[in-house]
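From the methods appendix. Each design record in this collection lists the tokenized structure first, followed by the designed amino acid sequence. Records were kept in a plain field format so they could be parsed without special tools. The example shown here is representative of the layout used throughout.

RECORD:
FOLD TOKENS (265 positions):
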């Protein structure tokens, strides 16, 4: 199986990193093409994948094509390779933000073109990603194989397309929010005498363990809060201070702003 990528930016590189880490596919079975040879050719040489000189070459070589370009470039690229995709019945995995399955089919002038629309987050690079997907009817016979590939990168979840903007906020953008939270905890540790690298390691490990606990538990995060909060204790004091400062409201406002921006395109 040969996997092709049109677009060689950060998300493409994160996906390739995850696939290669788990040895899900050999580097020689990955082909890439991007808009800037000085960018994607050295990258391809570094990780051992094949750099091709055109989008058409990717469509001819690959058994599945990941489309990872700026949304405005998606339609012209698909139009240019549509005949090849149709002839070879190559499924397209689109990572175009805000571009629906119907729009992708229209660009290809082919409602029988297998298309899987996905929204990954950057944690796919370490096989801990969260990936939303929506599929058109034509991809049904190939969907299980595509999901097997994506599940190597983390977790997948089927979502209606009208929920993709919400997913962008909760999974796509949220790593940045979590990084900010970790850094804020670490800076508080520095305030009280820890070295920054020590404080960051403590905070990051605590966040990672807490996330694993949420995923492993049948209880809600709020129930888990109660388990950590002794009556009259330090945790309750900290929680009340954070709520007084508006932590929950700030998080919701951040999600609101992210969704609004994504829907505006």
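DESIGN:
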């Amino acid at each position: 199986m040969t996997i092709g990528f049109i677009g060689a930016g950060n998300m493409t590189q994160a996906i390739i990193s995850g696939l290669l880490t788990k040895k899900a596919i050999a580097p020689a079975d990955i082909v890439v093409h991007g808009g800037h040879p000085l960018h994607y050719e050295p990258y391809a040489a570094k990780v051992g994948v094949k750099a091709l000189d055109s989008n058409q070459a990717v469509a001819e070589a690959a058994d599945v094509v990941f489309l990872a370009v700026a949304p405005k470039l998606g339609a012209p690229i698909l139009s240019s390779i549509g005949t090849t995709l149709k002839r070879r019945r190559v499924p397209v995995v689109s990572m175009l933000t805000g571009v629906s399955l119907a729009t992708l089919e229209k660009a290809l002038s082919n409602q029988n073109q297998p298309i899987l629309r996905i929204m990954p987050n950057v944690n796919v690079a370490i096989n801990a990603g969260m990936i939303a997907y929506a599929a058109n009817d034509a991809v049904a016979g190939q969907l299980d194989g595509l999901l097997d590939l994506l599940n190597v990168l983390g977790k997948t979840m089927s979502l209606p397309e009208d929920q993709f903007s919400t997913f962008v906020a909760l999974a796509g953008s949220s790593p940045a929010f979590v990084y900010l939270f970790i850094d804020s905890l670490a800076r508080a540790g520095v305030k009280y005498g820890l070295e920054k690298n020590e404080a960051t390691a403590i905070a990051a490990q605590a966040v990672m363990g807490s996330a694993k606990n949420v995923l492993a538990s049948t209880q809600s995060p709020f129930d888990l809060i109660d388990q950590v909060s002794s009556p009259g204790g330090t945790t309750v004091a900290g929680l009340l201070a954070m709520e007084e400062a508006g932590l929950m409201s700030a998080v919701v406002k951040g999600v609101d702003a992210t969704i609004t921006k994504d829907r505006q395109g």
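APPENDIX NOTE: The chain has a mean pLDDT of 96.
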